[in-house]
Amino acid sequence: EPLNTLYYNRSYFEMDEELKFILNNYLYKANDMRMLIYNGDTDQVCNHLGDQWLIEEVADDLSLLRSSKRQPWYYQLSSHYERQLAGYEKIFRGNLHLVTVKGSGHLVPMDRPGPALQMIYNFVKNQALSIGLPNSMTDPTPLKPEYAGLGTCPETAYPPPSPLPTIQMPTIPGMEEETEEDHSAFEN
């Protein structure tokens, strides 16, 4: 028997037992808790298909039927703009939500802050993910006066520019032309 299997025999699904424990837990069920699992669809760290397979396996093991098929959800910056595809959502019984965020990598709130905020806001409010955010959350607010000016910041002093030294390129056998000076050795 290979040594590796003595110490570690799981290679794909890591969180299945933990998720099953949570979803079967009395407190989770009695308090009607909900779980949101989301991934960026371009995430190269936690591929969204691997997570989908994990959640589907957990749902199968717990006999959690789908409450809704995989369906698109939409982001809308404000009522002045058209909706745009934000990803896909699949909901299982037991309040288990599986969501992808279109165009996002591993750090969804950093890569797609608008759709991430709308998704989390709507999930917490227990409403459809495609409902736009309240205008008060999307309208920009002016900067506080104490942060508006840079009057108190000292100007950064930089040394004056100086020319780079030149390097004479060696003569290459068979070339009659003189080579030009090359400054690339001093560039990053």
From TrEMBL:
It holds the Pfam family Peptidase_S10. Coiled coil: none annotated. One of its GO terms (molecular function) is serine-type carboxypeptidase activity. It comes from the Eukaryota. Transmembrane segments: none annotated. One of its GO terms (biological process) is proteolysis. InterPro entries: AB_hydrolase_fold, Peptidase_S10, Ser_caboxypep_his_AS. Residues 157-188 are annotated as: Disordered. Belongs to the peptidase S10 family. This is Serine carboxypeptidase. It comes from Teladorsagia circumcincta (Brown stomach worm).
